[in-house]
Automatic annotation (TrEMBL):
Keyword vocabulary terms for this entry: Membrane, Transmembrane, Transmembrane helix
Keyword Nucleotidyltransferase: no
Transmembrane parts of this sequence: 101-123, 135-161, 173-193
Organism, as annotated: Streptomyces poriferorum
Record field: compositional bias (Basic and acidic residues): 29-38
Residue segments, region Disordered: 1-54
Name of the featured protein: DUF6328 family protein
Taxonomic classification: Bacteria, Bacillati, Actinomycetota, Actinomycetes, Kitasatosporales
Name of one Pfam family that matches: DUF6328
């Protein structure tokens, strides 16, 4: 005879249950564990659970933090490069126009850093004040402002560099092309996708 100690026992009769067969009531327990509240998936054909407002604002805040880290890394590297340019020997030989472009570029870079770090300062000073919804909204606007300033900083940096190796007209054409690409990839395309999504929702 096969040993019965390893076989599961029926909780009501005390008899062993054959392998491959489910114990009485197990199916009901399994169904009970996976049962969702009525109406949870209403209007949600994929069965994805809806977020409550607190989960949604926490998710949006975490997304803003991730986006801020990426943008901050780029602007900090670029700003460090700009600061080092002023101490090179070739900088003194630049014309008045290039000097003005450099000053504008440094100011734009500093403003971009301020806008991209602002969400962190908002969270630190308003932490515990139960204003996370407002913080997320304002932080999102600072992120958009910082991205605009970052794009302008990159454009001015390119103009400053290309002026030293190309003719003025060619440098300006290339910078204009790059800026148009930034505008299309960073702002126009997301707006188009958002409009299409809104039309599908209607």
């Amino acid at each position: 005879m096969k040993p019965l100690d390893s076989a599961p026992l029926d909780t009501e009769s005390g008899r062993p249950v054959e392998r491959g067969a489910s114990a009485p009531g197990a199916e009901g327990v399994s169904r009970e564990r996976t049962r969702r509240p009525a109406g949870e998936n209403a209007g949600n054909p994929k069965g994805i659970a809806e977020e409550d407002p607190r989960e949604r604002v926490n998710r949006r805040w975490n997304e803003i933090l991730q986006e801020t880290r990426v943008a901050q890394t780029g602007i900090q590297i670029l700003f460090g490069f700009l600061l080092s340019v002023a101490f090179t020997q070739r900088f003194e030989r630049l014309g008045d126009f290039d000097h003005r472009v450099y000053v504008i570029t440094v100011v734009l870079g500093a403003a971009a850093i301020g806008a991209l770090i602002a969400p962190v300062a908002l969270h630190r000073f308003l932490s515990g004040s139960r204003m996370k919804d407002e913080v997320v909204v304002v932080a999102g606007r600072f992120m958009v402002c910082g991205m605009v300033l970052l794009a302008l900083t990159i454009g001015c940096t390119l103009l400053l560099l290309l002026h030293t190796v190309l003719t003025d007209l060619l440098a300006e054409i290339l910078v204009g092309t790059v800026m148009a690409w930034f505008a299309a990839a960073w702002f126009v395309l997301p707006l188009i996708l958002k409009m299409r999504s809104g039309r599908r929702a209607d």
